[in-house]
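Example 3.2
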Amino acid sequence: MPDGTQKEISCNVYLDQLYSACAAPDEIADAQSGKCVPIVAFKRPLMGCFEDQCDIATSYPGYSPLALTSDLASFKLEGYLNAETVVIFLQGGPDDSVSDDYVQFLEEDALVAYVLQTNVAKMGIVKASDMTVEDARLEQQENLRLIHTAYTALRAQFPEKRIVLAGHSMGAFLSLGYLAEYGNNFDKVVVMAGRVDLPLDFVRRFAIGQNFIFDHVGDVSRYEETREVRGVHKFSPYLRTAYSPNAESTLLAAVGLPRYSKLLENTDLSNMLYLYSARDEQVGGLNSQEIGLLEDQGAIVEEAGWHPDILGHSIMLVDPKHLQRIREFVLDASK
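Structure, written as tokens:
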């Protein structure tokens, strides 16, 4: 195993070696010892890179697992205060700011609480260069606590209102994590562009900081995320690998690591609408096992389709017919 501090070896080659050294799908080679360790124990090495790669060792500040105070305001309210329905919304990302425009189409008829995730409340942690997957797992546990804080406060403040949980992308994973941890006490649940069991191969790639996409037949194509690539939907069969020198991909590895099929196998999901795209370039489409698990637990699972001008990961929040479907489901008090 090459020394991670050596300048003569590229980030791509070195991290590919860490990724491919272990046969078990839930393990990665440790950068220091070369031994296979569980994904949750993996820590990317601080190393210099050449060519057009940035210097990981000096680009971003270190990670500090600072706990949030229990009285922190955990959500931002937008929309119609006198509405009969409150939507607790979990955004994608991880971003370091609140994206309060995801579900503006609901704000005329509902009160929307945008949850402040830890990556927002702890400004800068998405830029940390030394966050382990275990660190990230604890951050995601903190996110579940923040969601519960929001739910508890809103249920107490608006006891007569219906409360709906909705999440997109990383927020979809957090939605499933919350249901597994705290139970399903919502009137409705809307999950969009997530996975029940993200393939462990995908989790391992996130753990080493590798960016990539799912192509249109469900295979993984690695890519460097550029404006040009993101602006078109006809991806080439193979695009050059790029690595993220920060905690964004580590946080995604942690939220994708749990096997929600096991965690939710005894949970009633009959109040859930699950929207996915078979051509989701970010997490891939649901497979038959995932769809079966959701439907067995009572969820409504709908494939959102595809449009050449809209990336599959976002189509359910862009296409007018899906916006109307979500709106009708959320506001329907009869079920």
